[in-house]
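Re: that backbone. Tokens:
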């Protein structure tokens, strides 16, 4: 599914683009003045992971960062290109949800049930911890 989404952005001339950038764009459209820490908490990822995602998005020209209330805090905002991309990202997000719903119907509800079960299992114990256990 990620490849199909990436292909869609490439077809629209919005490449490079990663599907995990859409939630960040959508969050910045909904709320201004978010920090990297805020975005990490909002999307359930570690600060380091969101910091890398933000750096990639800055390099792509979609967002910018500015100094927050102290020297360590970075506030994230959309650039003009980010605003333009956001319009497409909103349409793509809705289309992706609709396409997933059709696949879920075709699989008798297994796709969403399996993804929810996976998320619950990983909430209980992360995949990274499970991987480390297997390597021991």
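Recovered sequence:
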């Amino acid at each position: 599914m990620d490849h199909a989404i990436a292909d869609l952005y490439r077809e629209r001339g919005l490449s490079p683009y990663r599907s995990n950038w859409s939630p960040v764009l959508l969050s910045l459209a909904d709320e201004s003045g978010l920090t990297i820490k805020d975005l990490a908490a909002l999307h359930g990822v570690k600060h380091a992971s969101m910091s890398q995602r933000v750096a990639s998005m800055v390099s792509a020209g979609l967002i910018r960062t500015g100094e927050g209330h102290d020297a360590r805090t970075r506030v994230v905002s959309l650039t003009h290109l980010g605003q333009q991309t956001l319009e497409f990202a909103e349409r793509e997000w809705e289309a992706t949800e609709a396409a997933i719903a059709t696949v879920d119907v075709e699989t008798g509800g297994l796709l969403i049930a399996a993804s929810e079960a996976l998320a619950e299992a990983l909430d209980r114990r992360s995949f990274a911890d499970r991987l480390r256990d297997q390597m021991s």
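The longest helix spans residues 80-106. Residues 7 and 119 are 26 Å apart (CA to CA).
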